[in-house]
Design a protein that fits this description.
This protein is an alpha/beta fold. It folds into two domains: about 5-120, 3-Layer(aba) Sandwich (Rossmann fold); about 130-290 and about 320-340, Dihydrodipicolinate Reductase, domain 2 (2-Layer Sandwich), CATH 3.30.360. Helix content is about 40%, strand content about 25%. The chain has helices at about 15-25, 40-50, 60, 80-90, 105-115, 130-140, 160-170, 175-195, 210-215, 285-290, 290-305, 315-335, and strands spanning about 5-10, 30-35, 55, 70, 90-95, 120-125, 150-160, 195-205, 220-225, 230-240, 245-255, 255-260, 270-275, 275-280, 335-340. The strands form three sheets. It has a seven-stranded mixed beta sheet. Strands 3-2-1-4-5-6 form a six-stranded parallel beta sheet, sandwiched between helices. A hairpin with a 4-residue loop joins strand 9 and strand 10 (about 230-240). Helix 1 (about 15-25) crosses helix 11 (about 290-305), helix 4 (about 80-90) runs parallel beside helix 5 (about 105-115) and helix 8 (about 175-195) crosses helix 12 (about 315-335). It starts with a strand and ends with a strand. The relative contact order is 0.15.
Length: about 350
């Protein structure tokens, strides 16, 4: 089987992770091209990744007939337009979350995907490809814990990244805490339950970093969600974990419960010293979800080669974004917000 030539767009922190996987670890892909408006990123692509072609213009990259697929790791507001451009140019498209920021543009993506049935489109909700989450999903689907009644999700970034995030906020928008971070947990709630979120009530604060009030973003937030079948979702999202990267999920059912990563243990080592028993913790999302990032792109290649639709659809992206936007509206207004689908 011939390798698929892929072009990556965006080489920031996550873009570099994807690029190295494409160049070094996924035999079905050949990292052929890179696109960025940042010259240092293009230099990195040539010097560290060995790409054959570099582009500053996405349209020029799409005009290269040698490219079979594109991987988009760009700012959220660019996703919808770039997805449509990629599909119309005849490329398979993988795009990082979120799908978009506005319903109207996401519906245009949905139409474009429907109009190009022979091309694979896939959205980057990578937790679905994490081994622990996949195992938990199998247990839930097999009825091991009965019917799901409540899901509790924590997603808190390490405070070591706050300075750089504040600098980012001075010039750009993250889309808000729920769209930027909790959207992964929204997707997990929908995935594990098979239900849509119908109502949300959200709160937020900037106690440790009040400067975020001025910059229009949020340090810590929480949301209570009602699902269509009356199951409950609880989400805590934040940017200020002192101990490292804190992601965990608890699923409670009528016959039992399960927890995924209730401690973010880096490995199986326990240090015994004057502080007691100490377990090293994962410090960032590349460390915790390294396997998931690799697995999702490996599967993307398989979907292309097997002419299969990706299981993470445009609808998943639309519904998750709608719920995240509703959480943001509820946090701003202090009111319960119903979601109309």
């Amino acid at each position: 089987m011939e390798k698929l030539n892929v072009g990556i767009v965006g080489l920031g922190r996550l873009g570099k992770i994807h690029a190295h996987h494409l160049a070094e670890s996924i035999g079905a892909f050949h990292l052929y091209a890179a696109c960025s408006v940042v010259d240092s990123e293009l230099d990195y692509a040539k010097e560290n990744l060995g790409v054959e072609k570099v582009y500053r213009d996405y349209g020029e990259m799409l005009a290269d007939d040698a490219i079979d697929a594109v991987v988009l790791v760009t700012p959220s507001h660019q996703h919808c337009g770039q997805i449509i451009q990629g599909l119309e140019a005849g490329k398979h498209v993988f795009c990082e979350k979120p799908l978009g920021l506005e319903l109207e543009e996401m519906l245009r993506v949905e139409k474009a995907v429907e109009e190009h049935p022979n091309q694979v489109f896939m959205l980057g909700f990578m937790r679905r490809y994490d081994e622990s989450y996949m195992y938990a999903k199998e247990l839930v689907d097999q009825g091991e814990i009965g019917d799901v009644t409540l899901i509790r999700c924590y997603g808190i970034d390490p405070n070591s990244g706050m300075e750089s995030f504040i600098e980012f906020c001075k010039n750009s928008s993250s889309g808000g805490l729920f769209l930027d971070m909790a959207i992964h947990d929204i997707d997990l709630i929908r995935w594990f339950t098979g239900q849509e979120i119908s109502k949300v009530w959200a709160l937020g604060n900037n106690i440790a970093y009040p400067i975020l009030d001025e910059l229009g973003d949020t340090e810590t937030g929480a949301a209570l969600c009602k699902l269509e079948n009356n199951a409950i979702g609880i989400m805590v999202a934040g940017r200020n974990a002192a101990h490292g990267y804190h992601v965990e999920t608890e699923i409670i059912g009528t016959k039992g419960s399960l927890r995924i990563a209730n401690l973010q243990e880096k490995n199986l080592v326990t240090i015994l010293n004057e502080h007691g028993a100490v377990r090293p913790m994962s410090q960032n999302f590349p460390e915790r979800f390294k396997g998931a990032f690799l697995n999702e792109l490996t599967q993307f290649a398989k979907y292309i080669n097997n002419n299969q639709k990706a299981p993470i659809s445009v609808k998943d992206g639309i519904r998750a974004t709608q719920a995240a936007i509703a959480c943001g509206e509820s946090m701003d207004s202090g009111e319960l917000v119903s979601i109309e689908y």
